[in-house]
Amino acid sequence: MNELHVGGVPEHFNLPWFHVVENPARRLGPANQEPRGDGDTTVVWHEQRGGTGQMMQQLGDGTLDVAIALTEGIVTAIAKGLPARIVRFYTTTPLQWGVHVAAGSSIGEEADIGPDHRYAVSRLGSGSHLMAHVLADRLGHTVADDRFVIVGDIDGARQALADGDADLFLWDRFMTSLYVDNGEFRRVGVQPTPWPAFAVAARTDVLADRRAEVDDVLDAVAAAGQSFAARPADAAVAEVVERFGLADHQARDWFASTAWDDGNPADPALIDPVQQRLVALGLIDAPVPLDRLLADSAPMSD
Questions:
Q1: What is the value of pTM for the model shown?
Q2: Which residue in 104, 126, 159, 229 has its CB near the most CB atoms, within 10 A?
């Protein structure tokens, strides 16, 4: 039995992955199509509460073979030397990043945010780090490196905001709704990603040696995503509420605003805006050739 080590956040976006991991028969893909590989692959799921930054580190050290991570984080990591490629997009819709402050913060709205405010981020290179730059750019200023407070995960961010060690925290607005509703956080704005939120990346050595296995698993996940999206809204929402603790209205909002990719290779036209924004923000030095970013663009050399 071959093991494929896959990392992802323990959040509702990854329900199609959970359905595949929990139901091994689905790994043959839609309609039990003939697998490209030997059909004998077990997905070993690694929960990544530290988000994209943690996953990029674990792709780099070989702990993970595949990661479902934020598109901009994957592009940044590859541009900085990570030996990986984007195989497919995972969702076709953006992520809605809530802009959060502590309940008692003097920041009342987005217009109050300035260059001296401190951002809680899970890790440098994480989505919370990169999107803080995108937010600041939209608001007309930049964020210096010393304005970032590394907190590890959402629980670390809650502590940092409560203790006054950080002023702001960007995170998926649905996953933070509990803390907004109970008065711990206030949400002063929303910053959507200007591109599809999540992509699937795999190490180059894994793609070189085991591409058929990777594709078999991704086909099954794509089929699970389409199946979940086609479910009656009441049934889908009930599962999200039960598994992730969202309120019914929040789960409905999320379900209506999320679409999963149907399994096509990553579209190069969707990658260019990501790179251009990262260059403009100074997060990468220059656009990376597509054959260094996309698994299906050209043969891999690293």
A1: 0.83
A2: 126
